[in-house]
Amino acid sequence: MNDSKPTEVDRWLGPELYSSDRPELTLEGSKCRECSAVTFPRQDSCPRCAGLDVAPHPLAREGSIWAVTVQRFAPKPPYLCPPDEFRPYAVAYVDLGGEVLVEGRVSMADGQTLRIGQPVRLVAESLVDHAGELWQLFAFEPSGDA
C-alpha cells in the first residue's frame, strides 16, 4: 500500500476517480457552486439542487469510518479476481472531511477490529485479476484509534 498518485505506467481501476493535479493520491469529486453539495464520483449536475454549475473538487485524504462490513463471498462479474482465489475484505463508508461519504475497501487482514468513528487515510492497493494483470485501486487504512 502506498499513497502515491496514479501514473501512466500504473493500471488504475476507474482512473477518472482521481485528481490529476495533486502530488499525492487524491480522490476527486464535484462541488456545486450553487448549494455547495459535494459528490463522489464527479457528476455533471447537482443531486441536491439540480444545478449545472458544478466544478471538480479534491476530497480530503483522511476521514473516519461511518459504517463497515466484511465482504465474505466473491462479488458477481465483472469482479476481477477468480472466485477460487477470493479472500474476504473489509468495506466501509468513510466520511471524508465532513463533506461526503465514500465507499471503499479497507486494507487490513482482520476487518473485525474496525470500528465506527475510527480514523482512516486514503492509500493505493494492488489487485491481481484472473488474467494475472496487476491493477491499482483506492482503499483506506486505519490511521489511529476511534
- Strand-pairing-aware structural class: mainly beta
State the total count of DSSP E strands: 8
Question: Could you tell me the radius of gyration in angstroms?
Answer: 16 Å
Please provide the ordered H/E string of secondary-structure elements. EEEEEEEE
Low-confidence stretches: none
Average of the residue pLDDT scores: 86
Strand content: 35-45%
Query: Shape, please?
Result: globular
DSSP summary: helix tally:
0
Kindly state the percentage of residues in helix.
under 10%
Integer tally of domains:
1
Measured between the Cα atoms of the first and last residue, the distance is 22 Å
State the strand order across the main sheet: 4-5-6-8-7
What does the main sheet amount to?
5 strands, mixed, barrel
Give me a quick take on this structure.
The protein is mainly β and 146 residues long. The protein has one domain (15-142).
Helices and strands in order:
Layout: E1 28-32, E2 38-39, E3 54-58, E4 62-71, E5 89-96, E6 100-106, E7 119-128, E8 134-142
Verbal overview:
By secondary structure, the protein is an all-beta fold. The protein contains no helices and eight strands. It has one domain. The strands form two sheets. A five-stranded mixed β-barrel has the order 4-5-6-8-7. β7 and β8 form a beta hairpin. The two termini are 22 Å apart.
